[in-house]
Amino acid sequence: MKKRLISGLLIGMLTAGMFVGCGNTIISPSPKPVAAPTKEHKIVNTDIKVIGGMDEFDSELIEFLESKDYGNQNYMISPTSYKAALCLAIAGASGDTKEELLKAAGFENEEQMNEWYNLVYNATVDFNDWLKDDQGSVEAAQNNDDYYIDGEGTPDGAFKIVNSIWANESRGGEFKKEYIDKVAKNYDATAASLPGEKLTDSVNFWVNESTNGQIEKLADKLDDYKLILANALYLRAPWMEEFEEYSTKEDEFKTFDGSKVKKDFMNQTNEFYYYEEDGGKLVILPLKYGVKTAFVLGNISDLDNAMKNAQRCTVDVKLPKMDIDSEFGKDIMIGYLNSRGATSAFGGSADFSEMTDDDVMIDEIIQKTKIKTDEEGLEAAAVTAIMMVESAAMPTEEPEIKEFHATEPFKFIVYTELENEENEILFYGQMVE
What we know:
Blueprint: E1 11-12, E2 19-20, E3 39-40, H1 56-67, E4 76-77, H2 79-90, H3 95-104, H4 110-142, E5 158-168, H5 177-187, E6 190-194, H6 196-210, E7 227-238, E8 249-254, E9 260-277, E10 280-286, E11 292-298, H7 303-309, E12 311-320, E13 323-328, H8 330-339, E14 360-373, E15 377-390, E16 410-417, E17 423-431
Parallel strand pairs: 5-6
Antiparallel strand pairs: 1-4, 2-3, 5-7, 7-15, 8-9, 9-10, 9-12, 10-11, 13-14, 14-15, 16-17
Domain Serpin: 59-433
Protein name: Serpin B
Family: Belongs to the serpin family.
């Protein structure tokens, strides 16, 4: 059974304090590892500025985020949910709009995009199959007192990726049947057509249900939009080696600006995969059912290489409990696509003719995320929604009105532009009385 790392869900500013039990760049595993004297890793720079070796879309997204001052704050973004939502838009796009969005999302064509989505979906299937097998084994043990360990609970977890598309009847929103069938086949997307007064509550209910309540709602008001395309990604999994609650102690956490705050730290000394290089180190904490979490201190030049070359050794791990909420709007979600050459989808030239007969454009993209960790495991969720409006009826902010009241002496110039692009002043004067 495949055990795939869906790293897109768990990329964030993970700057936990950590103590380690081995210190070489690559440590050879030992059948009976002996813990060496522990040493504290001094954090010189806690920012993960550039993550090499990752998917280009993912690594450039992190760079783009941190260029927008996210480098000095807690955040979590989901490239996986972001790309999955884009799949729904790309599936309904045509012409330059489709080509630009495909390129921006890191895909050569729609076939490659669908292959990527299938890999992600299959990882969720593997996770849940493995979980069911585990639950079945425990249930069988419970029926046999000779093998059941008293107090051992039923295995718990969840990993899912789901999609939905929404049409606002009050705005004349309507999807083509061919598009509905296409996204249902390729992305298991459900479709709904509702009057505007029911749209907001219905979408928010779907968001809450799809994330097991981790993200309560997408927005307070959605009825201004004609079409909405949404993805939700949810993971709940126990650590392979859980932390003991009695080992959780309050300690100081050094923030990016050097100040110190009190946090609850989970502590565990165990065998984990570990990597170290000049300026950074990494430890991989496996979750059950094939998902892993890598925690990074300092800067790792090539994250993919580090994870592949990490060696199993005894590591004394000290991690703060996390509870991080993030929200990203058009400045990030659309701005990033613009920076990668996708522009036509957001203006009057947008072509979504494979999705609808109406002229529509993308007006807003929102992503909300949440992650919580404790001694037992990890729970994380993301929702990404693409909101669309009529091209000719794009909601705009009220323009700032400048004031020019000539109620005092003023000058005036009457001029024309010559063929050499120089201005020729025809008349110049003033009025002072």
